[in-house]
Design goal:
heterodimer; A: about 190 residues; mainly alpha; B: about 130 residues; alpha/beta; five-stranded parallel sheet; 5 helices; 5 strands
Amino acid sequence: MTAAPQPTQAGDDSTEGATPLTSTDVKFFEELQGLISYIRSAKREIAALAPDEIRDKHIRAATDELDAIVGNTEDATGTILDAAEKIEGIASKLDIEPGMQIADAVTRIYEACNFQDITGQRISKVVTALKTIEVKIESLVKAVGGVAALPGDPLGEQAKKDAELLNGPQLPGNAKTQDEIDALLKNLD
Amino acid sequence: MSVDKNMNILIVDDYKTMLRIIRNLLKQLGFDNVDEATDGSDALQKLRDKSYGLVISDWNMEPMTGLQLLREVRKDTKLKDTPFIMITAESKTDNVVAAKEAGVNNYIVKPFNAATLKTKLVTVIGEF
């Protein structure tokens, strides 16, 4: 690190003709050097985090795993529905009472299979969050390297408003119930 | 006037599982003429090719969302009166308000049950 310049003394030949440095100038240089040292240290720490590895290995692996979960649950739900449809077909050939009971149970299975859509959407939200982290890391790396990339805004005003409405399934407690939705719709009539 | 159970119904969702569940529940209610679309633009094409008595659509789809589909339907002089039910996990007040402003007839929040679907169908298309 370069040492901070010293204030000039009266009669100092080496600074003859130059504007003498005041103690404020020296303080400014010291602070500037402190800042440079801080940035260098931050760069080292960011490099130690291996952002490329986070992006190329960890985030990609996490995204792949989540995609696999979506695929697996979709396959499993398909199998459950295959079986439920078969049972429903058999139920229609039975006497009314047992047939109705089985059909009712099959309806519960159909309702329960809603989970696949909900979990799929929740996982998509996590993937979006991971991709956001990836972009932020990329920007940080570029900024530290002196190439700050400003993200563009490819969306129009209406599309932007619409995008703000896409929040997916809410966590329990935040989600509106069907009754609350119905009351809201009634108020809007 | 009773509902014609032979009417064509278009269900729109990007999840195959959800399409299958809605189709099966509609079948249990006696509606057999059900077509499927996987996003708004696919649905819009089908709506222009064939007459439908009801649209049941998800919201969050690409490239065209259910909300955009609803707006397109309401803008189209031939389609504008088609009953439209939104069936979605989007359950914020802003979503319901936006759908209502766009002209939705009713709104079902996921996960839903068969009884809710039946109630909403009766509200929108009448007793069956």
